[in-house]
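ENTRY TYPE: paired fold submission
RECORD: A
CONTENT: sequence, then C-alpha cells
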Amino acid sequence: MGYRVVLVGDSAGYGYKNMIKEMLEGDDRIDEIIDVGLNDGDEAELYPNLATHGAEIIARGDADRGIFICGTGMGVAMSACKVKGIRASVAHDSYSVERLVLSNNAQILAMGQRVIGPELAKRLASEFFNYEFDPASHSKANVDAICAYDGSLEE
C-alpha cells in the first residue's frame, strides 16, 4: 500500500507544491494526493489555516504524510505542529530529510520556495518517501517523549 499525501502551498509556495504534485503523480509509492493548497488566481489564504487544515487530515488518519510549502517552510511547519500528534519540520538537505523520518517519525516535510531551488525541492520530496521510522530504534523513546507532551502517545 502506498502513501496518502497531503500537499499544502500558500501564495509563496504554490508553484513548488504544483511541481511536486506533478512529480508524485507518477510515483508508484504514492496512492493518493490530497491537495489543500492554493493555486494561481486563488484568493489569498493565511498559511497557518492551510497548514493546520492539512495537518488535521494527517492527524485524523486520512493521510500518512505531507509536504507543505511556503516562502521559507518555517511558517507552515510551526503551524502544522500546533495540531496534536503532528511532527513537522523544515528540511533543506538530504540528511535532514532522512533524520526527519528516521529520528523523529515526522509526518510532514516543510520547505521554502524562496530558499531552495526547484530541483533540490523535488529531490528532497522524493527522498522523504524513501524512509520508514523503525519503532524498535533508539529514537522511539524521543518520539514517545514528544508525543507524551502533547498527549498523542498511543500505548
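RECORD: B
CONTENT: sequence, then C-alpha cells
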Amino acid sequence: MISINMLEQLKAILELQLDMIPGGVLYLIIEENTFTWRKASKQFDLDMFQVGDKLNPNSISGKAMKENRTLTENVPRSLYGLRLKVVAEPLVDESGKVVGALSIVFPKLHPVARSFNNFAPVLSEMFPEGAFIYMTDLHKVAYRQASKQFDMPAVTVGYKLVEGDIAKEVIDKKKQVTVELDSSKYGVPALVTCLPLFDEENSNEIVATLGIVIPKKVASDLRDMSANLESGISGIASAIEQLSVSATNIHSNEMDLNNGIKEVINLSEEINKVSVFIKNIADETNMLGLNASIESARAGESGKGFEVVAQQIRKLSKQSKDTVPQIKKLTDSIKQKVDETREKSQGSLAESQEQASATEEITASIQELSSMSAELNKIAQKL
C-alpha cells in the first residue's frame, strides 16, 4: 500500500522511470473512483484510460481497492487487442483507509520481444550478405532490424499483415514456414524463415512471429554460373567426342593408306623383277640373233634371208634391253616417292594415334569437370 501523502513524490519517481522500462509502461492514478493522473511511455500507451474517466469497480484496480491489497492480473488479447499485465496497488490515507489506487499497465512481451533490441543488431550482421530481422504480433510488424548490407524499407513498424505475407501464414498454420523467393519480391533472391512464438504459459496459443530474411544473390549467381558452366562443358564434351570419333577414323584411314603403300612397294619390286627377266630375255635373244647371223654367213647366198631375220631379232633385242634401264629408273623413282610417302604416312599415323590418345584424355577430363560442375550446382542449391 502507498500513502496518499506521498503521491506527488510518487508521480515524480514514476516519470523518471517512464522510458526506462523495456516494452514501455502506462501509469494510472485513481482517486476515489476517477482517473486523476496518467503517464504513458513513448513505446506504449492505451487510449481507453483517460483522466476524468470513471473506474470500473470490477476491474483489477477496483478489486485491489475493495480488498485493500496488491493484485496482479494478466489481461488477454481479446479485451484490448494486445496482451497486458496489470499491477494495482491501493492508496491509503493516514488512517489506513483506501482512497485510491496506483495502476501500472505493461504490455506483456514475449521473452524474444524483450530481448529483440539486444540480439537483432548483432544477428543481422552475422551473415555475409547481411540480413533483415523482424517480429510481429498477430496483426502488424512490431520490431524491425536491418543490416548495413541489406534492408527492406517497405516493411516498417506498424505494417499491417495481409494475406500472402509469410508471417500471416505462420500465424494461421502455427508452424515454421521457410521459402526461397526470386528477385521479384525484394529486388534480390532471398531465403525467408519465419517462426511462431507461443505464450509462455499456454504453449498452444501463438502470440507473435519472428522472421529473418537473408539475401541469396551470391548463391543465385553461383547457381547460374554453375548451370552455364555445366551447359558449356556439355557442349565441349560433345565436340570432343566428335573429334575423338574423327581422330579414330583418321587413324583407321592412315593405317589403310600405310598398308596400300606397302602393296605399291611390293608391286615396284615385282616390276623390277620383270625388268630383270626382260633383260635376260633380251640378252638371250641377242645371242640367238648373233648365232643366226653367224649361221647365215656360213650358209652363203642361201642364208641371206635368214640374215635379215637375225638382224631384226638383234634389233628388237637391243630395243628391249635399252627399255629395261628406263623401266628400272622409273620404278626406282616410284619406289623412292613411295618410300617418302610411307615415312610421312607413318609419321601421320603416329600423330593420329597421339591425337586419339590425347582426345580420350581430354574427354575424361571434361567428364570430371562436368561431374564437379554438377556437385557445385548441388552446393549452390543448398546455400
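NOTES ON RECORD B: The first strand starts at residue 2 and ends at 3. The first helix runs from residue 7 to 17.
STATUS: closed
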